Amino acid sequence: MEPQPPLIGRAASWDSAYRNGSPPWDIGRPQAAFVRLADAGLIESPVLDSGCGTGEHALLLASRGLDVVGLDISPAAIAKAREKASERGIAATFVVGDAMELTSLGRWFQTVIDSGVFHVFETTEEVARYVASVHAVLEPEGVLHLMCFSDQEPGTWGPRRVSRDELRSAFAVGWVIESIEPAEFTVNRPMEAAKAWLVRCRRTSA
Q1: The whole model's pTM is what?
Q2: Quick check: helix, strand or coil at residue 140?
Q3: Which parts of the chain register pLDDT below 50?
C-alpha cells in the first residue's frame, strides 16, 4: 500500500512558517500548562512530543531527566530544536516525521504531549487518523496530554476552534477522558493569549 500523504498540510508550508520568522505558537519557552503538568509529576517517561516545533516542551522534559522524542513535519523546526538542545547541553531526540504516521518511530511511549496539533485537522477523517496514530504508540494505560484552541475563544484569528463535544467524540473509543479543563495558549502576537482546552486522556488496555 502506498503511504498516504501528510494531512496536516504540506511540509513546505509549515517549514516556511519557521524559516520566515517566529510563527505565533513559537514563543521561545514552554506553554505554562505543560510546565505545571511537569511540575506536578504528571508526565512520565518515555515521552513523545507530537508536533514539537522548535522543541521547548521536549527540552523542558529532557532537562528533568525524562527520555523524550520530539517529532515535527517541518525540517526547519527540527533543525532549530536540535540547535537548542546542543546549545543547552540537553539530551533529547528530534526527528522529522508525520504525526499521522507515528508508528514509523518504531517504539512505544508512556506519555504523548500535543501542544497545538489536534486543532489543525479540518475533517472528522483527519482527526480520526491522528487519534489512531497517537493510540498506536501509547503503552496501554499511557496518557495523552493535549492542548487545543477552544470554541470559547472569540473572533476568527488563528486555527479552528474545538468544542468539548468534539473532544469527547474523538476520544470515545479506546480512551478514557480524565479531564477537559480551560487553559490558555500564550502566543507571540499582540493578543498575547488565547483560550484553550487542556485534555488528559488515558489509553485503555483494549
Answers
A1: 0.91
A2: strand
A3: 1-9
